[in-house]
Input
Amino acid sequence: MKKNILIPVLALALVLCCVVGGSLAWLVDQTDPVKNTFTVGDINIDLTETTTDYKMVPGNTIAKDPTVTVEAASEASWLFVKITESANFDDFMTYAIADGWTALSGVDGVYYRQVPATTADTTFAVLKDDTVSVKDTVTKEQLSVLEADTYPTLTFQAYAVQSDNVATAADAWAKL
Output
């Protein structure tokens, strides 16, 4: 007898579940996908100078304008300029570094500055007043013994290293 009652009760329960379950509405939602694209960061610099032909005359100031440009869309960086003087440069010439540059401790002729990320080209003069000076103590005799391979020279080279995850200028210079 229990079996006879159990089967119809189960059948009725199954029919009720199907009717009730089929008529229930579920609240659901979903988001649009969010796509993450990882692009490449970069630093681009340029070193330019408008003149490269100079004549030494004792006491004269000579226009000399090496300029470093950090190009648009560059990441924040440590910007360096390395100035290399010929062995006899100090016998004939002098110059001063433009404002904003700091001498890198322990490395002769290297100067640095921090540059934030940029959306436009940003330029930095290297020499104060864009000039070098011929010492007024230079004599005609000193000049007359110079030959093409012994003329005083001043060479500039620029470097940049990302500043993200690089704590100091010394650390950045070590990465070059």
Residues 58 and 141 are 12 Å apart (CA to CA). The beta strands are 45-48, 61-63, 67-70, 77-85, 93-94, 102-103, 110-115, 122-125, 131-134, 154-162. The first strand starts at residue 45 and ends at 48. The domain at 45-174 is CATH 2.60.40 (Immunoglobulin-like).
